[in-house]
User: Fold this.
Amino acid sequence: MPNLKFIYCFFILVGIVCSTVLLLDACTKESIQSEKTIYFQNDVLPIFQSNCTQAGCHNAKDKAEGYDLTSYESIMASKKSKGIKPGDYKNSSIYESLVTGGPDLMPANPYNPLSDAQITTIALWIKQGALNNSTTTNVDLNNVTYTLSVKPILDTYCKGCHSSSNAGGNISYEDYTNTQVTANNGKLLGSIQQLSTNYKAMPQGGNKLSDNNIAIIQKWISNGSPNN
Ligand code: HEC
Assistant:
C-alpha cells in the first residue's frame, strides 16, 4: 500500500512544519514580552559617559569623528549621520561601531570593548525608540552588598575610566581589592558626593550620581566596606 505510506508521511511532515512555526512564533513573542524597558538616563547615558568621552574622544570639546556622546541631545544630533536610527539598531552607526570587527571597533584601543550586556542595553534602547526616559527606584539600604549593590554602580559609571588597563588617577574599580583602596581613604565617597573641593568631582565630565546610588555607596562604606 505505497499510497497510504505516502499520505502518512505527508501528514507527519505537515505536522512537524506547523508545530515548528507555532513554537518559533511563541518563542519570539515571549522574548519580546520579557524584554525589559531600558531607560536612557539610568542605563544608557552612563555607559557612553564612562566609556566614550575620555580626552580626545567623544566629548563636547573633542567631538572625535563628529560624535559628542555626553548628552541625549548631542547623541541624537548624530541622527542625521544615522548614528542613532530610533527603532532600528542594526542600522545605527553608533551600535554598529560596538560590534564591528577590525580597527573600527569602539571603544578604540587601548580602551576595553563594551560588555555584551552593555551592548544589548544600547541595542534595546534604540529598538524601543531611543527615548530620553528615566526611572527612579526605591532602594533598601538594609541589604546593601558589594556584589549586588555597589559593584554594578561602579561597573556602569566608573569602570570605563578606572579599570586595570585604564586606571584614571591610578585608581581601579575592577574588583573588590582595588575598590577597597579609595573606599578606605575617603576618596570614593568624597569624589561622588562632590561636597568638598578636596576631592575631584566624579564621574569626570559626567552627571553626578543619583542620590540613591550615592546613598548605597555611603551605606556600604559606613558598614566597613565588606566583601559581601
Ligand atoms: C571619563 C572618565 C572618568 C570617569 C567616568 C570616572 N573617572 Fe574618576 N578619574 C578619572 C581620571 C582621569 C582621574 C584622575 C584625575 C586627575 O588626577 O586629575 C580620576 C580620579 C578619580 C579619583 C581620585 C580623586 C581625587 O581627588 O584624588 C576618584 C576617587 C575617582 N576618580 C573615582 C571615580 C568614581 C567613583 C567614578 C564613578 C562614579 C569615576 N571616578 C568615574 C576619570 C574618570
The pocket of heme C is lined by residues 49-50, 53-54, 157-158, 160-162, 168-169, 171, 182, 187-188, 191-192, 199-200, 202-206, 209 (CB under 6 Å). The mean pLDDT is 86. Residues 112 and 199 are 26 Å apart (CA to CA). The two ends are 71 Å apart (CA to CA).
